[in-house]
Amino acid sequence: MRTSHLVVVVCFLAGLAQTSFALKEEDCEVCVKTVRRFSDSLDDATKKDYKQIESAFKKYCKAQKNKEHRFCYYLGGLEESATGILNELSKPLSWSMPAEKICEKLKKKDAQICDLRYEKQIDLNNVDLKKLKVRDLKKILNDWDESCDGCLEKGDFIKRIEELKPKYAHSEL
């Protein structure tokens, strides 16, 4: 009788450990969000064929920037990708596997996939630009696809951002 209780307890603890190790969105945020966004862009016919999914992913990757572009590189979705584990994305997607599970599998193949993190967004309506580093000011301009020709000092970058702010930083009503 005692061994059956022990078996039940061990099985319960193993099940509990399994659920606690399940990947959460925040553990692999770029992967999960990119896979979801990509999956949502596919039509039903494409979702059933993993070869079509791979072709669609390569097209999808051409328009990606920053962390999503890096994610595409890791999977082999770009021409310049050194390796490719694209089938680790396309086949599970064709089976309607959730993004978290796909990313869990991808992490086992290449751990750096889950090392990708989004940077904290800067609230331009409430931040003092003078307190930001030049690197952050350059990033704001880069995110807007804008340049700052002739900018040498921090003040030049701040002036350029202030000029462009009405175009990009819309205040919430």
UniProtKB/TrEMBL annotation:
InterPro entries, A to Z: ARMET-like, ARMET_C, ARMET_N, EF_Hand_1_Ca_BS, SAP_dom_sf
Intracellular or extracellular location(s): Secreted
Tagged with keyword Signal: yes
Signal sequence, start to end: 1-22
Domain ARMET C-terminal: 126-168
Spans traversing the lipid bilayer: none
Protein name: Mesencephalic astrocyte-derived neurotrophic factor homolog
Classification lineage: Eukaryota, Metazoa, Ecdysozoa, Arthropoda, Hexapoda
